[in-house]
Design goal:
mainly beta; 5 helices; 6-stranded antiparallel barrel; 305 residues; Thrombin, subunit H
Length: 305
């Protein structure tokens, strides 16, 4: 049966328990769960994203049953995921499948994890600094995703407020607890922190962002989506802007605003271990020439573009 459990995040300053997306990590022997692994309100992703990574329990041979979190390839031998997806695990407990689209129909190679590098300030209680790096034992040939640096040629607001982001993953897509085998996709707006603050009785950090819709909108990440990427089209390419951290119990609220780890807040941490990772760049001003006879065709090309 599909490996899943619901872990409750107890917030000492909140009146209610909230169920985490980390739910899928534990209770690997449960026989009470359906035997199928989507995002609530989502749809089949139109393409297989080469950087999308299924985080797998290495002890489970069936890929569909083994998947319990998501992640992204950020260099040939490094995967970025949520810190809570690695909690209580050693490198040998985890494998990854990179570029997979259908968990029930994939002939690629499962790659072993060589090392887990969880953020040193990760908090399992409040899920702060909720990200981790997985060093792979062998390189993947798939294309890594670029990480949003907080700057771009388009001069997008670094806070990403009101941007319509795209979430992909294999988490629950229908209630009660029905999982897909094919990768799911949904568009979620980045909203003001106050929406998540009031929903969960917290104060979001600058390293977190709030995205999604109010309860009962039936559009949300859910169990199985932890660590999965929140993406945005920036400067003509998909970039990683956040990863699924925690939220409300999607099974009872039918979706709600979710809290995501903001990847641009961890550029220095990522660069420390993954110097080959790619990041967006800020606008580069065009050179100014004072020689009107030099390159007379240059202004024509600029106007045409």
């Amino acid at each position: 049966m599909k490996k899943q459990v619901l872990i409750f995040l107890v917030l000492f300053f909140s009146l209610f328990n909230q169920v985490l997306y980390a739910a899928e990590q534990v209770a690997e022997s449960s026989s009470l769960l359906p035997d199928v692994p989507q995002i609530i309100g989502g749809y089949d992703a139109p393409v297989a994203y080469p950087w999308m990574t299924a985080i797998l329990s290495s002890s489970v041979s069936d890929l569909f049953q083994a998947q319990y979190c998501g992640g992204v390839l950020i260099a040939s031998n490094w995967v970025l995921t949520a810190g809570h997806c690695t909690e209580g695990k050693v490198a040998g407990d985890i494998q990854v499948a990179v570029g997979v689209y259908d968990l029930s129909n994939w002939n690629g190679t499962r790659i072993n994890v060589k090392r887990i590098v969880r953020h040193p300030a990760y908090s399992s209680f409040l899920l702060q600094n909720d990200l981790a790096l997985l060093e792979l034992s062998s390189a993947s040939v798939q294309q890594p995703i670029t990480i949003f640096f907080g700057a771009s040629v388009q001069n997008i607001d670094p806070k990403l407020l009101n941007q319509l982001s795209t979430l992909i993953g294999w988490g629950v897509y229908d209630l009660p607890a029905t999982y897909p085998s094919t990768l799911q996709q949904i568009n979620l707006p980045v909203v003001a922190d106050s929406y998540c603050n009031s929903t969960y009785g917290v104060t979001l950090l600058s390293s977190q962002l709030c995205a999604g819709y109010a309860a009962a909108a039936n559009k949300d990440a859910c169990s199985g989506d932890s660590g999965s990427p929140l993406m945005l089209m920036v400067d003509g390419q998909w970039v990683h802007v956040g990863l699924v951290s925690y939220g409300a119990d999607c099974a009872t609220s039918n979706g709600n605003y979710g809290v995501y780890t903001r990847s641009s807040a961890y550029v220095d941490f990522i660069k420390q271990y993954v110097p080959a990772a790619k990041f967006t760049a800020g606008a580069t001003p065009l050179p100014i020439t004072t020689n009107s006879k030099a390159l007379p065709w240059l202004m024509l090309l600029l106007h045409k573009n």
